[in-house]
Every structure is written in structure tokens, then in C-alpha cells.
Amino acid sequence: MMLSRLLGLFGHLSSVNLQNLLFGGQATGIKGLPIILDSGSTFTYFNSDAYKTLLSSIKKNIDTKQLTDAVNDKSLPVCWKGSKPFKSLIDATRYFKPLTLSFTKAKNIQLQLTPEAYLIHTDKGNVCLGILNGSEVGLGDVNIIGDISMLDKMVIYDNEKQQIGWVPANCNKLPS
């Protein structure tokens, strides 16, 4: 299990410091963000600068022969469509790379986000980015890792030691 030191509490929410955000194993230049982990938020939100940098990294890596902007799909602000509608999210994930959130230099604690943990499949057969610009919804510089990005992760809060940890888990399977 990975454990990261908590910066403190933001209301009732736990906060950690992001050292680096990687997209497909490549540094995005997003560093030093305080991050709140909140399973009560449906989506993940980054401040405007971090959001724009991440979106640029994603768009640079999209094969425009396979995916185009789905401008008519208003499910979320940024959506893509394939040459034919995607039947499920799994059909679209091969076109996207994983995100890695690194929380500390010393222990190299990372939260790996597969495309399933940051994309949404719409009823129009498109996929949309489930990471939103928090500045556009009144969050200012607050950065939130929401429920979408905690998909198939068991998150453990150790309030006594002021640590938070996570481990991959198959949340579709009931414990035995």
C-alpha cells in the first residue's frame, strides 16, 4: 500500500501535496499542487493552469485519425468521438494514456490513473474528460481528486499518523 503524508484537513477533507503529474510517463510540468481527496465529488477538478496544461498534454497525444472533438456532445466540456460510436468506455481507452500523480519525492508515492479513472462514456457513444476546470465552477485554485479518479482503489485514511494510502482493488467483486 502507498502512504502519503497528509498536509492537513480542509474542512472534513484530506489534503496531500502533488509533486508531479505525468501523462503517459512524461512530465506535464504540473507540480506542487495541494490536492484534496474527496470521494463525495463526482469528478476531479484542477485549477485553471493545471487543467489547461493537462488538457494540452492529452490533446497532443490523441491520434486525430482515430478521435475527433465531439462538439455536439454537451455531456461534459471536453468530449471525443471515434469513427463509430463507442459501445463502452473500454472501447475508447486504448486511445488514451495513463495519468500518474506523484505525491512525494522521497518515497515515490504514486496514484496511477488508467483512462477508465478519468474518462466518462456518454449515451451518444463518445468519451469525455472527467477532469474539469475547477476555476470555471467556482473552486478557484482548489484541486480535488474526486470519485471518478478513485475508481477501483481502496483508500485508507490514518488520521492518527496523518497519512492516507491507497491500493488497487476490484470494487466490482464482493469480499469473500
Automatic annotation (TrEMBL):
Signal peptide (from-to): 1-18
Keywords: Signal
Domain of life of the organism encoding this protein: Eukaryota
InterPro entries assigned: Aspartic_peptidase_A1, Aspartic_peptidase_AS, PEPTIDASE_A1, Peptidase_aspartic_dom_sf, TAXi_C
Keyword Nucleotidyltransferase: no
Ranges in a coiled coil: none
A Pfam family: TAXi_C
Entry annotated with the keyword Zinc: no
Record domain Peptidase A1: where: 1-167
Family stated for the protein in its record: Belongs to the peptidase A1 family.
Name assigned to this protein: Peptidase A1 domain-containing protein
Lineage per the UniProt record: Eukaryota, Viridiplantae, Streptophyta, Embryophyta, Tracheophyta
